[in-house]
Amino acid sequence: MAEKVFLHIGLPKTGTTYLQTMMWGDRERMRDQGVLLPGRERRDHLWASRVIRHDPNVATFDERRLTSWARLTAEIAAWEANAVISHEFFAGASTQEAAVMVADLAPAEVHVVVTARDALGLFTSSWQESLKNRDTVTMAEYAAKPVSQSSQAIWNWHTLDIRLVLERWAPVVTPANVHVLPLPGPGAPRNLIWERFATLLGLDPHEFDDESSFPNESMGVVEAETLRRINLHLQDDDFTKAVDRGVYIRTFLADERLVPRNGERYWPAPGVIEECRRRADDAIEHIRAGGYDVIGDLEDLRVPADLPERRTAESVTDAEVAEVAVAVAGQLMHDVRRLRMERNAARRRVAALEERPAPGFRHAIAERFPWARRFVIR
Questions:
Q1: Strand residue runs (E) in 255-302
Q2: Would 324 disulfide with which of 29, 76, 226, 309, CB 3.0-4.6 Å?
Q3: What is the dihedral of CA 134, 152, 101, 96, to 10 degrees?
Q4: Per-residue pLDDT tens digits for 8-47
Q5: What are the helix (H) ranges across 33-156?
Q6: Would you tell me which CATH number, out of the four given (3.40.50.300, 3.50.50.60, 3.30.420.150, 3.20.20.140), belongs to the domain 4-316?
C-alpha cells in the first residue's frame, strides 16, 4: 500500500483544471519522483467521485465506470510511495462517504488537500461553469438556490463554501493532515499554486513544463447571458450526455467562441456580494481555529471591502445579446463551411482509393503482360 495518499477534493473553480492538466500531462515523471497518479485517464477520477457519492445514475454505468474507485484503490495498494487522487466533485461528499474513502485506502496515511479562492470570484465563476454544463438559471436565480445537503450538489454553496466542505471532511483525518491552499492573489506568478501543490505531494515542481497547461478562462457578462439563452434551446436529448455537453457547449461554443471575445467582467447583485464577503470571513476564522495546515495566505480568501465598479448580469440587454449571437452565428457559418469542405475532400479521397484496382490485380496483369508493367504498377 502507498505510504501517503493525497485526496485533492477541490473546491471547484480553484485551479483544479490547471493542476490536473499538469499532472496528467507528465504522470510518468511523477512516477519517477515517487508519486502515483492512478487510473488510465482523468475521467477515472471523475467516475470514482460519482461512485463514492452514490450518483443516482450509477445503475446505468458501464463496468469501467462502475469499477473506477476499485481500480484506483487497487493501483494504490500495489504502490509503495505516495499517491494522489484529484477531482473537485469529491468536495460534495458527505462525512460518511469521505470516511468510506479513507477506510478503503487504509493503512495508507490519508491527507485531504483543499484548494480555495475568495468566495466572490468563486461564486461568479461557478455560475458560469453551470452555464457551460447546460444550465439556464440567471445569476439571481443561482444566488437564490438554498444550500443543498445532497452529495450530488456541485454548483451550490454545499461545495463552494470551504467552511461547509471542511466541516464534512475534517472529521475523517487529523487536522494536521488537512491542507488548505488558497489561490495566490493578483500579481502572483501563475505557477505558484502548482509549486505549492507539487511540493506538498513530494514532487519537484520545477521539473515539470507548464507550457501545455491552460487556464479555464471566463466569458464576459454579455457572452455568459448569450450562452444561458442558447441553453434554453439545447434541453433535448442530444445534449443529455456529459461528453456532448463538454464537446459542444463547453469547448466548441463557450471556450472557443465566446471566451475569446474578451467581454466585460461583472459582479452579482450587491446582496450576493455581501453574502460572499460574510462566507469568506467565516471560512477564514474557521480555518484559523481548526488547526489545519495552510500553505499560502488566508487573506487571499477575503473579499475586499472596496471593489472596482462592474456591471451586473441582470443589466445585459436584448440588443447586446443579439449582437453577440449574430457574431457567433457568423463564426459558425465559417465553421460549417470549413468542416463540409474537409468532409467532401475526405469523401473524394476515399472514392479515388475505391476506384483504383487492388494491388493483387495490378501485379497479376503485370505478370501476364510484361509490356504493361510500366502502366499498372505505381
A1: 266-267, 293-294
A2: 226
A3: 170
A4: 999 999 999 999 999 999 999 999 999 999 999 999 999 9
A5: 43-52, 63-66, 68-77, 95-104, 119-132, 139-144
A6: 3.40.50.300
